[in-house]
Amino acid sequence: MLILGIETSCDETAAAVVEDGQHILSNIIASQVKFHEPYGGVVPEIASRKHIEVINQVVVSAINEAGITLNDIEAIAVTYGPGLVGALLVGVSFAKALAYGRRLPLIPINHLEAHIYAVYLEYPQINLPAIALVVSGGHTEMILVKELGVYESLGRTKDDAIGEAYDKVAKWLGLGYPGGQIIDRLATTGNREAIRFPRPTIKHSKYDFSYSGLKTAVINYTKTTHHPLPVEDIAASFQEAAVDALVSKVMNAVQDMAAVSIILGGGVAANSRLREQLNAKTTGKDIALYIPSIVLCTDNAAMIAGLGFHKYNAGNRSDLSLDVNSNLKWEKWGEKWGKMGTARKMGTAPYF
Ligand code: KG4
Ligand code: ZN
Known about the structure:
This protein has helices at residues 33-36, 44-65, 85-102, 111-122, 162-172, 179-187, 212-224, 231-256, 272-282, 294-297, 302-313, and strands spanning 2-7, 12-19, 23-31, 75-81, 106-110, 130-135, 140-147, 150-156, 201-202, 205-209, 261-265, 288-290. By secondary structure, it is an alpha/beta fold. A five-stranded mixed beta sheet has the order 3-2-1-4-5, with helices on both faces. The chain has a five-stranded mixed beta sheet with strand order 8-7-6-11-12, sandwiched between helices. Strand 7 and strand 8 form a beta hairpin. The two termini are 16 Å apart.
């Protein structure tokens, strides 16, 4: 079955064609980074406008590159949340129009669930239960995966996402945007024990995170220290604090939940120290670590189309009343694709 996936939740306009939830025939990503770079972060209004400009071409490219025609597409999967409301609206409106015009089924996709699914595109057999960590510019979420479609949210950031903290610290240090990769690179030549920054944890909350305090600590350090250490040391020390919290909480969750795998997703999964630490903690133990290729870690539509296949087979579709939900939450999904996995209500509009 050929599914077209569409993703516009943040600053990447993406479309992909995936066969049977597994074989990626095309995976087109138009990044908007250069338009947001002057501002040191994603500007929602710019994101929406840029999505509108390129979405048609991105979808056409995905179909052409797959070597098929629009007639071959059998369903459309689209991200409807969480994300930037204006950005989400572009993808959802486009998907609805195409579904209506072609009389195709429309499958609503939770962006975070798709980040977890990304790993299945390269590793179809994952031993469960797993602890999934979705870390990006917009999210820091830890989720227990009982089976595909059955989840329990364990914890999340209470303020800044980890990628956001990287980007803001890099901006403050005048390093450029996006900051994650730059700090990661600088940190390789710095001393990670040079400065003991606070770990972004929350007292009395076992699996939640708080990255805004760490960001402020770095800013205060540079403001109040007369002779600050070299930027490489600041970067390495910041990174150590940022990663330390993630790794220790994930390992705690693995133990508490008797998980047998760890799944990593989101742009921050590219981080070298995070990979190194998780590798070190899992090697030699009966815990499998799954990290997708970088192109599948960052926002992409292959993960949307891939997950769409399974949701379609489970009867999880939407009619044309599908709306975006910028705050789409993870709750306890007790049964397969429980209530939050479905677009909330089925209206009276055509349902194919
Ligand atoms: O998933 P993504 O492409 O977009 C969303 O945020 O949805 O993630 C981008 C984020 C940015 O905050 C970027 O700074 C961060 O991922 N990032 C990294 C690294 N590469 C990208 N953070 C830490 N280390 C990296 N190597
Ligand atoms: Zn994402």
